[in-house]
Amino acid sequence: MMIRTNIFSHIDSEIQLLLVFYKLKQNPVGSLLASDFNISTGGIPELFKFWIKRMYRKFKIIKIWPSKENIQNHMPLSIKQHFPDLVAIADCIEFSTHVP
């Protein structure tokens, strides 16, 4: 995987991807990313968009959601009666953890 963007050709693609994963996981401010990866703050959004689009093109074939029919077939009857069009429930609870 040695594909490089024009602006960041001095940074290996693996490091670029690491920056994107770090941003997705920790969401640090741009100045911290720029400092940690020794790049300009202004180019981070462009690099981020480049890799997110690239990952989408590569991973869009992976089906992460079951089909609506499959959901309907396995849904408990009590939920199906009250929410006949339900296809997903998003649980957005966040727990803080301390990592050494």
From TrEMBL:
UniProt domain Transposase Helix-turn-helix: residue ranges: 12-60
One matching Pfam family: HTH_Tnp_4
Annotated InterPro entries:
Transposase_HTH_dom
Taxonomically, the superkingdom here is: Eukaryota
Q: Which PANTHER family match?
A: THAP DOMAIN PROTEIN
The molecule here is called Transposase Helix-turn-helix domain-containing protein
Give the source species.
Answer: Potamilus streckersoni
Per the UniProt record, the lineage of the source organism begins with:
Eukaryota, Metazoa, Spiralia, Lophotrochozoa, Mollusca
